[in-house]
Fold each of these.
Amino acid sequence: MITPVTLFKSLADETRLKSILLITQEKELCVCELQHALDESQPKISRHLAQLKQIGLLQDRRNGKWVYYRMHDDLSGWVNEIIALALTNNANFLSTASESLFAMGDRPTRIASCCET
């Protein structure tokens, strides 16, 4: 179970916060999509996603050699509500990352992926 302290500490980092908001917005994203949207390296994105998974905010799904992340199915209502409110009320904070993700030309189809390289 996620405590308020754990949640707010995990969301205090900009990369983790933007990752959570983008994943909430898109329902599911792979590392390469977050890499493109946030203009960060694969190791940095993967490290932050691992931290979010470890505390129970995210869960992953493998499709071949690719990993897709989504919000954990068993999150408490208050956690989902806080994240939804942050997403709804902070469009400017996420606008550049959302635009970059939308402009990504080779987004994965959940079968084949941009992560093949």
Note: DSSP finds six helices and three strands in the chain.
Amino acid sequence: MTAAPPVWLVRGDDPVLVEDAVGKLVDRLVGDANRSETLDVFSGADYELGAVVMAAETPSMFGRRVLVAREGGRFNTDDCAEVLRYIESPSESSVIVIAWERPAVSGARLGATPRKLLSAVKAAGGLLETKAPGGGKARSQWVGEQLSALPVRLTPAAKTLVQSTLGEDLGRLVGLGATLKGVYGEGALVDAPDLAHYLGDAGSVPPWDLTDAIDDRRSKVAIDNLNRMVSGGDRHPLQVMASLITHYQRIAALSGSDVRTERDAADLLGIKGSTFPAKKALAQSRRLGPEGVARAIALLAQADVDLRGASGLDALTVTQVLVARLSRLGR
């Protein structure tokens, strides 16, 4: 029988998903025990991981203990030394859960997980990743599983509305499920008209939703996706520009080449794994033709200059104009 991990590390890009995963893990570890006797939570900017380990190694009159260390993103390799020692010689009655989330300090950034800690926890079987799949079938399947796990049942129209509105902000599913349960009751069937009021503003979308809309010459959809990336995803227009430049650099690299298959295109572009991005770039290079590709590069260059102060327009407007012009290119 495999031993239970002495330390769990829960991490991911979305703090809501991390919070939800930590809550479910703690529920499982505590079980039917009295939380006031079993669970200890460390949080804030003052505690050290050494204190968590000390608590885990201190005998408890109540038996099993679960110790949760919040805001782990502020710790570095040296801070984790005591945890690494604990993994080598853990207490049989205690388990530590480290939530690798952003520190609750204004302007604080999420630190990278120390490699030694990540390796040790993973080897012990305690690594829990919460990041949703990036795209394609894997992401759609993941979203479908999350929607099915909600405490209410959604009609197909409601599921479509949730996905189109939330975009990349899938962490909002956790709060949405709790809200709908409170309003309609557990197991209730909720349709799109009943759901719209609780969804809030449209969330961000991934960069490929923007480039796909541009490639398909759907200018209104492209500009809407751009606005969602900037307002809902907190991306600066310069970050959007970086995605567009990468997209058109791939197209330009294939323009005029003798590449005929998507596999050859992927090899030329240095794309590993799925050849789908190369397939899209190849199709777009053929549709635009050399003149269209040259025009796209010129538009990107001018917009880049304008974003850096050459134009009197604000950054979002400059990018909106660029996206509209790119959407009109093509033979």
Note: Residues 6 and 89 are 9 Å apart (CA to CA).
Amino acid sequence: MTRTVPRPAAPQATALPAGGLRATARIVARADAHGVTRLPVLDGGGPFAIRRIQSHADQTRVCLIGAMSAPIGGDRLCIEATAEAGTSLRITAAAATVALPGRTGDLATYDVHLTVGDGAHLEWLPEPLISAEGSDLRMTTTVDLAPTARLVFREEQVLGRAGERTGALRSRLTVRQAGRTLLDQETAYGPGAPGWDTSAVLGDNRAVGQLLLAGPEFVDKPAEVRLLGAAAGAEPNAGQGVLAPIAGPAALVTAIAPDGLALRRLLDEAAAG
């Protein structure tokens, strides 16, 4: 008697979840016995490729590289980065992130969770997020700081690519120190957000950003209010912004500009002091 042995099934590619891609990237910085910052966790996935780049002095640096177009409508993306006690970490990106419409019309979500331990220093300096026409993105960023943590956090949003209208963009930023809220704000631009392009909000500007600086040095010496760009007498097309102290050991720069280049100049001007 003969027996038929089933042929092994051909390997199949993992199907994407219905409605979009799910992906989480994780970065953990940890100090070794000599105080050198190591990266025991450097885990990309989906559209996130993470590369360690050349360190500077005692600061370890990594770069986020887009491995595919994302976020697209229906995607659920997340980045989790932790700088443990005594570490120094800078996170940058190789290119802008472009929010794109999907085939189903579903919204996309992009969540960022940053944790900074005692005596640690984290610099979060990605390239701009561009809201392309037809896209719908909800972005949330949550930052948890230990009492003696230091943070440099930059966020830039460009509403539409050249010659096109913006998509719908909702963004929330929450920053806590030792469990106490330093900043909790939410913004909305594009379709469904009333008044965002009026003179009371952005007017003709299509780039908006902020720079948050936090650290124990602001306890004894709070930041002084400073106007930037057109608010300080520069040309109108330079954009405008303001640097101001916020409750707690931090300073916040808020800026708007006609385009991403002018916005970056304003934030760099503020960072340079």
Note: Residues 1-17 have pLDDT under 50 and may be disordered.
